[in-house]
Design brief:
Two copies of one chain form a homodimer. Chain A is α/β, with parallel strands linked by helices and 491 residues long. Helices cover 47% and strands 13% of the residues of chain A.
C-alpha cells in the first residue's frame, strides 16, 4: 500500500457531517419496521414513537465504540481467509442483478445456471476475494428456497469467503445453519466471522423488516454485516452531495448502533453506496463521477469512526460492454482504492445501472481489479519494498549500460520482469500486424472467449464428502418444510 | 481540490531516489548532442568529455533552486490563461501521433485537414486547456514548414494557450516569432510565459541536438518547457519501476539544469512519461498500470523539488475505442489527478500505444476529463465549499421531508441540481426502453455523432485582422526562404 491516500474533506468538515447526522438521528429519528429492533434500541436509551426511533447522541457515540476496527473473515479454505481492516482492499462480485446480458447484447432474466457460471468465474479469479451472495437473482428457482440454493452452489463450487443471505430472519438463519455445517457447529461460527452479509437502509431514514430481521440474526451470532445507505441524491436524498453524505452517515450509524445494541462487538462495515439521480433521465446514475466523491467521503467517515468502509465497484450505466463501461468502472474502483475504501461490492460483472450482470463484463472488470491492485502494490511484498531495495534502484545496471545503451539483455531484466510487471488478460498490447492476424478483436470479444475457457476449465476445490452430504440433506429438508416440490419453476 | 492526495512513497524513499540520481549525473554523466549545451554546462561547473557531460551534485542542486514553483501561461484570450502550479490540473491533447483512426477502425496517415479538426475539437472542449502542438503529424505538408502551418492553424482557429514546436532551434525560433506577432513583440513574449513546449530526453541518459536546440531557444526567452523522460522499463530503462523512476529523475534533472543554466528562472515542468515494455509483445505498453505508479512517483519527485509535474493522460494500447480504451484511459488520467500531477499531455484522443489519434476517442476522453475534473471538485467554487455551507448539508430539507419521503419536488433540489451534478455528453444513463428507441448506440457511435456536430458547429474566436495578416505574411515569407513551393505534398 502506498504512503498516504486521498482525503477528500478536511477534519473540520468531517466533524460537521458527524454532528449534523447525530442531530438527524436524535431529532428526526429513523423508522425501524421491526418491533424487536425497536425494543432493543429502547432498552439502550432510544425514544420510540410508533415505528419511529429517536437515537440520543450519547447513545449513538457510546454504542459506536463497541464496533471493532478490523476482523478476519474465514473461508472454507483457510488460505482464502481475508482481513477486513482500515488498510484492506477486499473485493466481492456484483450483487442483486435480475438480468444477465445474453447474446446480441440483449438482457434476459437470470437463472440458476447463470448463477453457477458466476460462482465459477469468481472462484477462478486471481483478484476477487469473496464469492456468493445474490450475484444474479435466479428467477427459475422458487423464491422460498433461492437463497438456500445459492448458498449451496457457492459452498460446493468455491472455497473462498462467502456472502450470506439477507432475506430476512429466515435467510440469515439458513445461512448460519449452513455455515455451521461447513465449519463444525454453531459455536465455531459464533467464535469467528464466517460469513459477511449486506444490510441496506431504505432512504430516507428507514430500515425495513426484512433487513432488520437479517441484521439482528447476524449480529446475535457476531457475524459481520455491511451496513449500507443507498440514498439517491435528488430523489431519496438531498440533491447536494454534502446533504446525501450526511443522510447516508445517519442511516449507516443507525444500523451500526442496532448491531452493537444486539451484540456489542459485532463486526460491521460502513457502507457508502449512495448515488445521484440523473435529472434528465429520472434514473439512478451509478456511473456518475459524483458517486466517487460520495464513496471517498464515506471512507473518510468510516476512518473517523474507526471501522472498515465499503464503497466503489466496477459501476456503470452502460447497456453494453463499451468504452463507457470501461471508463466508468475504472473510475469507481480506482477512486475507491485511492480513497482507502476497504471492502467493495460490485467489483465485477455489473452494468446497466445495477440491472444486469454480464459474463464478458465480469472478465473485463476482473482485469480492472488486477490493474487497480497492481497500482496499490497489492502483490507479493509491499510496493515500498520494491522501491527501497538496492537491486530495485538498479544504479549499478544503469552504470554498466551507460548513456545510449539498452537493458533488454541484462540479467537484471530477465530476473525481475515477471514479478515487476502485472500480466494482462484482456488488454491487447500487440503490434498492429499481430493484432490484425489474430482477428482484430476488441475487449468484448476477447472477454467472451476468456470466460468460456475459464468456466470450461474450472475444477471445483474439494468439499469433504460428509460436509456435502450434510448440506444436501439440509437443502432437502428445508425444501420439504417450505413445501417446495420442484427446484426449478416451470416456464 | 481535495484535502490531500496520494503520496506513493515515503520521504525516505524519495531521498534515496534523489541521491541515486545525483550519483548517476555526477558519475555516469549524460550525453548532450549539442556543443552549445555542453559549453553552457561547462561554464556552470560541469566536466565535459567528448559529448558526455558529468554534472556535479552541487551544481545540480544549486541550479535547481532557480526553477520557479509556478507560472501563468498566457493565452490569446486572457480568459483562457492557465496557472501551472503545484495545485493545478491542466490538460493538453494528444501529441506526436503519425496516424488517424479512419472508417472501419483502420488507421491511416494523418493530414493537415485532420489536424484542423483536432484543433476545433480542443477549441470546443470545456475541459481541455491547451491547444496545438503535434496533435497529429500532417504527412501531406512539407516537413520543413509543418510546424509553421500547425502553429498558424492553432493560432487562427483557437484562443486557448498553445503548445510550441520542438523541431530544433528553427522550430522554436519560428514559434517565438509567431507568438511575438500575436502578443505584440519579442519583449511581450519574453516578459511572460506565452507558449509551452515539450522537450524529451532519449533514454538512457541522452539529449539529441534537435531537442537541445529547442530547449535552449525557449529557455533563453524564459518560455516554459516540459522536460520529459520517456524511458521504457526493460528496454531503455531498468526493468524495475524504482530503477526507471531513478533514471527518469536523472534525465529530467539534467534538462532542468540546462534550462536554468541558460536562463535562471526559466519555467520548467517535471515530465514523468516513462512506461514499461510488454515483454511478450516487445512493445511499449502505455496503458499498463505500472505507468500510473511511475507518473504518481514523478509527481512526488516534482513536489520534492518544488516544480510543477507532468504525467498521466488518456493512454491506451487498444487499437479500437472499446472497453480497454475506456478503462486504461480513465486509470491513467485519474491516477495522475489523485497523485497531484499538474500538467497532462495526451489528455484526449491518443490510442494504439501513441501511434494513432481518433476523433471518436477524443470525445470519449473529453468525457473522462470532465469526470476526473468533477471528482477533483474543479468547477465553480472549490469542492470544500460545496461541503461546508449549511445549504449544502441540507439538514433542514431532511427534517422537512422526514423518514420515507422524497426530495424530487423540493425547491432545494430544483435550485442545486445543475450546479451539483456534472452533465454527461457521451455516457448513456437512459432507461432501457429509451436507449432501445434511440438506436441502441454504444459510446463509439455516440462519439462519432458528437465530434461531427462539434466540428460542423465550430465558430473560431475572432483573430484581429492585422494579426492574421502578419501571421499569414510570416508563413509566406518562411515558405519562400525555405524553398517550399506547394504547401501540400502531392500523393
Amino acid at each position: 500500500m502506498f504512503h498516504s491516500h486521498v482525503e477528500y474533506l478536511s477534519p473540520d468538515t468531517l466533524n460537521r457531517i458527524h454532528k449534523s447526522s447525530l442531530d438527524l438521528l436524535e431529532e428526526v429519528g429513523v423508522v425501524f419496521r421491526s418491533r424487536n429492533a425497536r425494543e432493543v434500541l429502547a432498552e439502550h436509551g432510544a425514544r420510540v414513537e410508533g415505528d419511529r426511533v429517536y437515537l440520543p447522541a450519547k447513545m449513538v457515540t457510546s454504542l459506536l465504540e463497541a464496533a471493532p476496527r478490523e476482523f478476519r473473515l474465514r473461508a472454507r479454505n483457510p488460505q482464502n481467509d481475508v482481513e477486513i481492516s482500515p488498510s484492506s482492499f477486499v473485493l466481492a462480485p456484483g450483487y442483486g442483478c435480475p438480468f444477465v446480458l445474453g447474446r446480441s447484447h440483449t438482457r434476459r432474466r437470470a437463472t440458476l445456471a447463470d448463477y453457477e457460471i458466476f460462482v465459477k468465474l469468481v472462484g477462478s479469479s486471481p483478484h476477487i476475494d469473496i464469492n456468493g451472495g445474490i450475484i444474479v437473482e435466479p428467477h427459475d428457482v422458487d423464491p422460498l428456497v433461492r437463497h438456500i440454493w445459492m448458498l449451496y452452489l457457492t459452498l460446493s463450487l468455491s472455497d473462498k469467503c462467502i456472502v450470506g443471505s439477507s432475506m430476512g430472519e429466515t435467510g440469515a438463519k439458513d445461512t448460519i445453519e449452513m455455515m455451521s455445517l461447513v465449519f463444525g457447529g454453531h459455536e465455531e461460527v459464533q467464535n469467528r466471522p464466517s460469513v459477511i452479509s449486506l444490510i441496506n437502509a431504505t432512504a430516507p431514514l428507514c430500515y425495513d423488516e426484512r433487513m432488520l430481521g437479517a441484521l439482528m440474526v447476524y449480529a446475535s451470532y457476531a457475524q459481520p454485516t455491511v451496513i449500507a445507505s443507498m440514498a439517491m441524491a435528488g430523489a431519496t436524498g438531498p440533491v447536494t452531495l454534502a446533504g446525501t453524505v450526511t443522510l447516508q452517515n445517519a442511516e449507516v450509524l443507525a444500523g451500526v448502533v442496532l448491531a452493537q445494541a444486539v451484540h456489542p462487538g459485532a463486526p460491521v462495515v460502513y457502507g457508502a453506496a449512495s448515488a445521484i439521480t440523473d435529472m434528465r433521465a429520472g434514473t439512478p446514475a451509478i456511473g456518475a463521477p459524483e458517486n466517487a466523491i460520495i464513496s471517498s467521503v464515506g471512507a473518510q467517515m468510516a476512518r473517523y469512526y474507526g471501522i472498515p468502509s465499503r464503497g466503489g465497484g466496477c459501476l456503470t450505466d452502460s447497456k453494453v460492454v463499451d468504452a463507457q463501461a470501461g471508463y466508468e468502472s475504472m473510475m469507481h474502483l480506482l477512486a475507491a482504492a485511492v480513497s482507502g475504501v476497504n471492502f467493495v461490492f460490485h467489483a465485477a460483472g455489473v452494468m446497466d445501472s445495477y440491472m444486469t450482470m454480464s459474463f464478458e463484463k465480469f472478465v473485463v472488470d476482473d482485469e480492472i481489479c488486477g490493474m487497480v491492485k497492481r497500482f496499490l502494490g497489492l502483490r507479493g511484498a509491499g510496493q515500498e519494498d520494491c522501491f527501497t531495495a538496492d537491486e530495485a534502484l538498479a544504479t549499478d545496471v544503469v552504470r554498466r549500460v551507460g548513456p545510449g545503451g539498452h537493458f533488454l539483455l541484462e540479467d537484471h531484466t530477465l530476473k525481475h520482469h515477471r514479478r515487476e510487471f502485472w500480466s494482462p488478460g484482456v488488454s491487447d498490447r500487440s503490434l498492429l500486424e499481430v493484432w490484425r492476424n489474430l482477428g482484430k478483436t476488441d475487449a468484448f470479444e476477447r472477454s467472451e472467449h476468456i470466460w468460456r475457457e475459464r468456466v470450461a476449465g474450472y475444477r471445483p476445490p474439494r468439499l469433504p464428502r460428509h460436509v456435502d452430504d450434510r448440506l444436501r440433506k439440509y437443502v432437502e429438508t428445508r425444501q420439504q418444510e417450505l413445501g417446495v416440490k420442484d427446484l426449478l419453476l416451470s416456464g
